[in-house]
Design a protein that fits this description.
- By secondary structure, this protein is mainly alpha-helical.
- It is 79% helix and 0% strand.
- The chain has helices at 4-19, 23-35, 37-60, 65-68, 70-97, 110-125, 128-137, 148-178, 183-206.
- Helix 2 (23-35) runs antiparallel to helix 6.
- The longest helix is centred in the C-terminal third of the chain and has 31 residues, at 148-178.
- The chain starts with a helix and ends with a helix.
């Protein structure tokens, strides 16, 4: 079992990483602003699931490919950039089509929930910096000859920390959203978030490795 002091250190570092604005943060913000609290939480759950997958990938050595293979890193980086740009364009088209003005859904729509979860999961998995972060961070807490329980504990700690932070972000964003009654204001916010995601995608695609 991971000692309490080590667990607290892991939580602190993971929280600092999660709090740094990046693709996950802006996609989560956009989903919550456009659709409301519940879709935002589902999107956050998708991102947390992505974190757990990266933890497993680091444990089996798969994520290490990104640190030694420029091709693998570039492919994931470009895929992530393209996905962000696509989400940004989708946000613009939604505003233009008037769907951003619609009231937040109150029914549990399976397609909408699936879309929100998929957005969060793909955004996280297509972010190579997340993999590199955990690749540099996790091995410090995995002793030689450790059992699989250590990896499980690390995954639970990282996933729970990220999920709690993003749930707080969603809750605060949804609270602000309720006070934005003007359709024009909501359209401006949705368009702005679309522009941010497109700009971030272009920046990621253009950035050099490291």
């Amino acid at each position: 079992m991971i000692p309490l002091s080590t667990a607290l250190a892991i939580v602190a570092v993971v929280l600092i990483g999660a709090m740094s604005p990046g693709p996950d943060f802006f996609v989560l913000l956009s989903r919550t602003l456009s659709s409301g609290r519940r879709p935002g939480l589902i999107c956050a759950a998708g991102m947390a699931t992505g974190i757990s997958i990266w933890v497993c990938a680091v444990d089996v050595g798969a994520a290490a490919l990104l640190s030694v293979s420029a091709t693998a890193f570039t492919l994931i980086k470009l895929a992530g950039a393209a996905y962000l740009i696509a989400l940004g364009i989708q946000a613009w088209l939604s505003v233009r089509g008037g769907r951003a003005d619609a009231a937040p859904p109150t029914t549990r729509s399976s397609p909408a929930a699936t879309r929100s979860f998929r957005e969060g999961l793909l955004c996280n998995l297509l972010n190579p910096k997340v993999a590199l972060f955990y690749l540099a961070f996790l091995p410090q807490f995995i002793p030689p000859g450790r059992g699989w329980m250590v990896t499980v504990e690390l995954g639970v700690l990282a996933t729970t920390t990220v999920l709690c932070w993003y749930a707080l972000v969603v809750t605060l964003t949804a609270s602000v959203r309720r006070f934005i009654g003007s359709r024009r204001a909501r359209r401006v916010l949705d368009a702005a978030m679309g522009a941010v995601m497109i700009g971030l995608g272009v920046q990621i695609a253009a950035a050099q490795r490291g």
